[in-house]
Design goal:
Blueprint lengths: L1 H15 L3 H34 L5 H10 L5 H12 L14 H25 L4 H8 L4 H11 L1 H16 L3 H7 L9 H11 L2 H29 L1
């Protein structure tokens, strides 16, 4: 127990003193996860809107499949991306393996179903009368979609925050694609995993506390966004 308390004390000192390694890993993790979330927003918010507003055979089945992938294992996503970007894979010539860009790609694929599903659910929550009202006012399809998206903005914010939380907390894909290389691809989760294996308890606790703090901030922001929508 004394050793654990000592490790906690050292970890707090590492955080409060701005230990270079802790700061470096934290900033890299935030940058990778924020990049993945931004790219996912650009791709999957419009895609979710298209699925919601369009009518086509198999729409309900597609939405069910998207929702089924909410809990896809991160190591499976990592394996798929590894096969794509490895030297013998179809995207091997891009040189993405063991790079930050490779981790971003893996995280985009990981959070894709979460963002798609939550965007579709958020748009469903908008009053069914709103599109009809907009049509009677002469709004075109694009104007109508933009207005509904604005109406569903709290749900969209929640989708973005939850996707960011999913990205920043994953370890399997980051380890498999990034290789946990110090100074290049090491993230909070992979550094914690490595630190525990090497017996570096204090540094692992420090990184864990930072990761927990980020998760709590994201959770609080999601709750606030949900409160605004009610």
């Amino acid at each position: 127990m004394d050793k654990l308390a000592e490790a906690f004390g050292i970890s707090l000192r590492l955080i409060l003193s701005g230990d270079p390694t802790v700061v470096e890993v934290t900033l890299r993790t935030l940058g990778i996860s924020a990049s993945a979330t931004l790219l996912a927003c650009l791709l999957f918010i419009p895609a979710g809107a298209i699925v919601h507003f369009a009518s086509f055979p198999g729409k309900k089945i597609l939405i069910s499949v998207i929702q089924a992938f909410y809990s896809v294992p991160t190591v499976f996503v990592g394996l798929v991306v590894f096969l794509l970007i490895s030297r013998t894979g179809p995207l091997g010539s891009l040189g993405l393996l063991f790079t930050r860009q490779g981790i971003v790609l893996a995280e985009v694929l990981l959070i894709a179903p979460v963002m798609l599903g939550l965007v579709i659910s958020g748009l469903k929550g908008v009053s069914a009368d709103a599109p009809d009202t907009l049509r009677t006012l002469g709004a075109g399809r694009i104007q109508m979609a933009a207005a509904v998206l604005r109406e569903a903005s709290p749900a969209m914010i929640s989708a973005v925050l939850l996707s960011f939380g999913r990205a920043i907390s994953e370890v399997g894909a980051a380890m498999m694609i990034g290789g946990n290389i110090a100074g290049r691809t090491r993230t909070l989760t992979t550094a914690i995993s490595l630190g525990v294996g090497k017996g570096e308890t204090a540094e692992s606790i420090a990184l864990g506390l930072i990761l927990l703090s980020i998760a709590l901030v994201v959770s609080a922001a999601v709750h606030m966004a949900g409160s605004r929508s009610r």
